Structures are given as structure tokens and as C-alpha cells.
Amino acid sequence: MDMNEIKEIFFQECEEQLAELESGLLKLNDGDRDPETVNAVFRAVHSIKGGAGAFGLDDLVSFAHVFETTLDCVRSNRLDPGPEVLKVMLKSADVLADLTNAARDGGGVDEARSRQLIKELEALANGEVLQASAAPEPVAKAAPVVAPVVNDEGFQPVAFSFDDFEADEPALMEMPTYEIVFRPKSDLYAKGNEATLLLRDLSRLGEMNIHCDMDALPTLDRLSPETAYFSWKISLKTDKGEDAIRTVFEFAEWDCDLEVSLVADGAAAPSEELPMQPVPFDLSILDDEPVGPVGVIEEEEQLAAQQQIRDAAVSAAGTASNVLQMAQSAARAPVEKSAGAAASAAAQSAAAQQAAASAATPTIRVDLDRVDRLINLVGELVINQAMLSQSVVENDANGTSSINMGLEELQQLTREIQDSVMAIRAQPVKPVFQRMSRIVREIADMTGKSVRLITEGENTEVDKTVIDKLAEPLTHMIRNAVDHGLETPEKRLAAGKSAEGTVRLTAKHRSGRIVIELADDGAGINREKVRQKAIDNDLIAADANLSDEEIDNLIFHAGFSTADKISDISGRGVGMDVVKRSIQALGGRINISSKPGHGSVFTMSLPLTLAVLDGMVVTVANQTLVVPLTAIVETLQPEAAAIHSFGSNQRLISIRNSFCPLVDVGRILNFRASQANPVEGVALLVESEGGGQRALMVDAIQGQRQVVIKSLEANYTHVPGIAAATILGDGRVALILDVDTIVAASRGQSLKPEMSLAAAG
Amino acid sequence: MASKKTAQKTLSLAPVLDLNEATALHEKLLGLKGSDLTIDASAVERVGTLCVQVLMAGAKTWEEDHLSFTFSKVSDAFEKTTQLIGVDIDHLMAKEI
Fold first, then answer.
1. CATH assignment of A429-607?
2. Which CATH architecture has domain A612-746?
3. Which positions fall inside the MlaB-like STAS domain (chain B) (predicted)?
4. CB contact, 8 Å: A232 with chain B?
């Protein structure tokens, strides 16, 4: 386990913490005042800071520190998390995410932005403190509220050097004296923390006298070498304030009992009955690393030291789980003993929740490559099993029942294995949705609109590949929804709506697919303008008679977005063709429905996985094709009486008193030159993207089967009208039909996507 | 000088007395019980609280056994650390004769 791997684990955890942070802040934003929520948010930042310190990621540490300080004010009820405060905090969460990404992948961050936010955060922390503490000099009195670590120069007080120390010396006489009782628990040592280092850091804050309480220490034969027996009573003269003292112990907070109290008169020795030992000032010999430049952030030193010890422990422990635990040690403390009186209630409840969280189902991290390899192998297994069944059927026509039963069981097992393997890759859409809330915030800021993003069904699971590829089109659509979909607050008020626009992002499972809906309550699509634009761009004939739905769908057309002055259109249209293409590349469909004045709803339907598909195997002109089962509504045997000719070469089929265009798949794919006779074949009624139904004409249905998808693009090249390929039981390659393109082609659109259509409808 | 009758044993401490070393040190000390002990802490570069605990428990045990438990030589780091954490080892220091 080298450093990079530990670092990678850290970043993975950062991601989780950032998600936690954001969802917590959003909860607060919704008016949640549960202290647990505040604690969770605080902990998230704290953990990131702790880990970042261990890896020397200074930017991250310094920003997280300021953030944390402000959050601490919220935690201690010194700062009310109103909308303005939360706005700053949400932005800070975004910057923290940026900094984390920058630390992981390199690259820069918007420094001006983070500096600005640091200022705002500090202002929040300071501003409220002034209000909260009536005493003009909070440090001078034994007031419970002590100035937070932040001062005008940022987070300077944490930084410490011996130079500062000497400068402070003349003032030593008037310095307040604190009495500190420090009782480490065994966990503190088990997690690689070291009391000596904490005490060393403490001694640097001022003049320290210490008494070590060894009463608990047993004789050697009853001693357990890794149990904490020592506890300390410390008297410390410092002007750094109580917070600075607590900062020293912050990474051990949950593993020790700590009491810090201000002694009224600094001159009087606090506990005279105890023999106190003065602590030598020059402790540089105890520094593990060469003495650094002055102004080294003390915390960093401490962390570096912790890290060393941690490394040592890691090498000893050696297992990944241990490393994980170590990396988290700073913040994640399982509560094994009831905490003593000293630990603050907040810390306790925080720890309690930690315990609750860690009690959740245990998980392991697995390299994605391994999962993919497994999935591939299972895919091969499925194909192999199909081949086996087929050859048994072919070679043994009467089929002994035991073989057949065995085969059936095998089939069931493979299916189960496949489902389980797919479940490994399934992930909730939550992270993507969370990213969207940031995008909404940013766009809303840019456009001066007030937007609320409501997400539903975040825990809906879908294949990881789908999730990864979903982010981009979704981002695009969210941008459009806020930028073009929602009106300005003034317009909204004029239209009798609330000034705050709503964007609703929903995910749900529906018949083996995931359906993602993006709805806004904006003005809806301005069909007149869209239509005009389409005519101007030669996308449709000036006199074309289009349904509302067809007009709405025009915005997905490639030619539409390349036109200039897109933002003049009050509907949408920026890059929606790109969105559509990426959704289609995922095997998905996208629909739009819009109500003028009430907003638009985009509905995306995506397959749950990209690896397998339930398909209907059909024959068209002696070719075997697979039609995705999800697209098929019903199958029927057309009768001659139900077929009607329409125009020169169009035909309709009448189904239950309605007409449905008949699509000759063989013709469109150029499998045959002449039209097939519908009566000899089978019609598959499919739902097309526009919502209308089409009847696909094929020669015969072979059966229904689960097929393993093999990308055509990766192995050959993209073929219009074909989504992918698969290997059938007999070893032959079958093409998987891209139903939407076939349907589009039947409307007169070319199968070649780059060619523009001359007329729609 | 130590009397001839009592077996005089010496324990040299490892340079790094951290978490991992505490158990080892504990076992070593248990093995040395029953005789006067001189501890050489001159090589110690880093010492953690747990090991100090073990050593102090040792001192306590030896005292109960009425045997001598002394530090012959201590390194600067060892001395500073014990001082820092408020553990007084002065009375355990070997008196130069």
C-alpha cells in the first residue's frame, strides 16, 4: 500500500464527504435545523481538512479551515444559517469540491473566487461573534464565547512559529491561564495519535506546567501495553484563546476527555496541591522532521507526524480496511465507551451518528476494471450457455429430460449471476443529481434568477456507465431549463407565479428502464418562434403542417442549434441535438412536452444497463435482427383487409380503429429492393420517441431472448439504424435494431444523421 | 556498585518507542522481573506515551519488589519527552558514584 493508493482512498472519501456536505447544506437550506445535520456538515469539512493536511494539500486545508470555522459558529448557534449564510456556504462547498479536484487531477482553481469566499466566510464568523458576545474583549473574561480562530488575516492564529512566540513573551504576565484536563482513551493511541505530540503542540501555545496523573497505572503484570492509563492536568498561560487550545486536540476530539477552563487569576497557581512540572521550551528535538521554515502551520506538523505514525501502523496492519480506517481516523471515531463529562454534547452526538453511519452495511471498494472483466465474462457465459442449449436441441431432438432440466437450471443460474453482477455496477443517480444542484446555483447566479431545484428518486439505481454518461446531457438540459426555460423574477411575478422558479429532477424505474424527468415551471416553448426559426433555417417547409409535439421536437434537430442568436428564443435550443445524441448513444430516448405558460417537461428513458438487453429475435430478409423488447408494445399478424395504401409507397395498418404507419424494416435497411407483403410477415407495434406508434414489419419472430450487447462502434463502425450487435446461441452475429432511427427514417428522414431533412411530417 | 549477589541486568531501549513497540517492551520487562534492572535509554530518538506508561509501570513493579530500577543513560529526546508529559524520572536516574 503506497502513498498514492492511500491518497486515492482519501480522494474517494472526499467525494463522499463533499456529497454529504452538499446534501446537508441543502437540507439546512430547506429549513432543517436539526443539530445532527449541522454536525454532519461540519464533520464532512473537518474530515476533508484532516485528510488534506496529512497529504500536505495546503490550499485545501486553508480553505477548509476557514469554512470549518464558520460552520463551527453555526454549530454553536453563534451564527444563524439564514438564506444568505447558506448561499455563501453552498458556494464554499463548490469551491471546496473544485479544490479537491484540483488537488487530485492538477489544474487550477478560480483563486479570486476562493479568496472572495474566504473573506465572506470570515465576515460571517466574525460578524456574528461581535453580536453574540457582549463583552468587548472576549478573551479577557471567562466568557463562554471566545473569539473564533479567525482573525483579520485569515487563519493566522493557527499558524505558529517560534518568532511569534518570542514576540509574545513580554505580554506573558497578563496572559490568561487555562486549566486543561486531558484524559486520552485507548483509542487515541490505537488510531496512531500520540499524546506527546498533542502536548508538544500545546506547550507551544504558551507557558505550560504539567502534572501527569499516573494513579491508574497498574503494575507490570496487570498492564495492558496499549491501554491509556496516564491523564494530565495542565496549566497553560497563553493569549491564544480557548479555541487555539481546542484546535490542538481537534483530531483527537472523540478519543479523549478534554476539559478546558479559564482560571480567573493567571497569577495564582491553579492547582497547588499537585506538583507541576514546568515544560521545557525548546522541544525541537522532539520534532520528527527537520525544523521547518518559520510560520509552518502547526497543524500540518502535527498531521505530518500523525501520518508518519499512521504509516508505521499501516505497514504493520497492512490490510486495506485498516488503511481505510486510519485515513479516517481524524474524524471517524466509533463510540465504544460512553464519553465522559468533558466531551461536549455536540461531539458526542456527532460521534453517535458516526457510529450509526458506520453501522450501515459494510462495503468494499473494488477496481472498476475488475467488475467490468467479470461482467464481460458473464456475458460470454450467457452466450456460451445459449450455444450449449442450442446444440443440445439440435443434436438430440427427443432430448432426455434430465439434460433439458439441467440446461434450464443453468439458464436460470446464468441469469441470476448476470443480474447480480449487473447489480454490482448499479449506482444511485444521487451524485449526478447533486452535481446538478450546483449547476443550478451557478446558472441562477449568472442569470439573476431565483431557482429552486427539487430532486426526487435520487436513490434510483442505474448502471455506472449510464450514470457517467448522463451527467453531460443532464447538465446541458439543466442549463437550458434555467437559462431559457425559466423567466426572470419580474416576468414571473407579472405572470402571477412566484418569483422563485422551480426545476424538478426526478428519477424512477419504469418497466426495466430508468426514466429521468426534468420539469420546469417556466414559460414553456414558444412554438411560434421555434416554427419560424425552423422555417428560416430551412428545416421545414413554410407551409408544413406540424403538430405541437412535432414543433417541440424540432429543438432537438441539429440544424436548429447551429443557428445564431439562439438565446433570443424564449424556448430552448442550445445544443439539444447534442443532448439527444448522447441520450441515444446510451440507448435512451428523450421526449419533450411543453405547456405554454406552465413550463416544459423533458423525459428521458434510459436502459438500466448497457451490457445486456431483452430482445425479440426476428428475421428480416433472411437476416436475424434483435428488436429491444422495451420498444415493443405488441405484435400482430396483419390481415390483408387492415392494410391500406397511402401516397405513393406508404402504407398504413388499421389497428383497433386507428391507423398506424407501416414501416418496412427490410426496405429501410436495404435488405431488399422491393416491398414486402405485410400479410406474410409479422408487425411489431413499437412506441416511437415522438410518442406515436409505428408498426415495424418483419418476416418472422424467432423468439425472445436476453442478449449480450457488443458495441458495433468499438468493433466495426457505426451503422445507421443499428444500435449494436450481439452473438446468438448458434454463434452468429445478430444486429440490434435502433428502433427510433428506423422510425425516423420511415418518416422520410435519411438514415444518415448528418444529412439534413428537407421536410418534416 | 551493584552488589555481587543480586543479578544485575541491563535493558537497552530501541530508538523508536512507538505504539508497536509498547507490547514488545512490556514483554521484555516482564521477562526481566526479579532482578535489579538498569535501563539504557541513550539510543532513544522517539518515545510515545504508551512506552512511557510501560516503563513507569515497570518502575512501580520493581519498587514493589524492592529491587532497583534505574536509568543509566538517557537521550535528550527521552528526557525532554518525559519532561514534556510531566513524568518525573529524576528519582530513577542512576546516581553517579
1. 3.30.565.10
2. Beta Barrel (2.40)
3. 11-88
4. yes
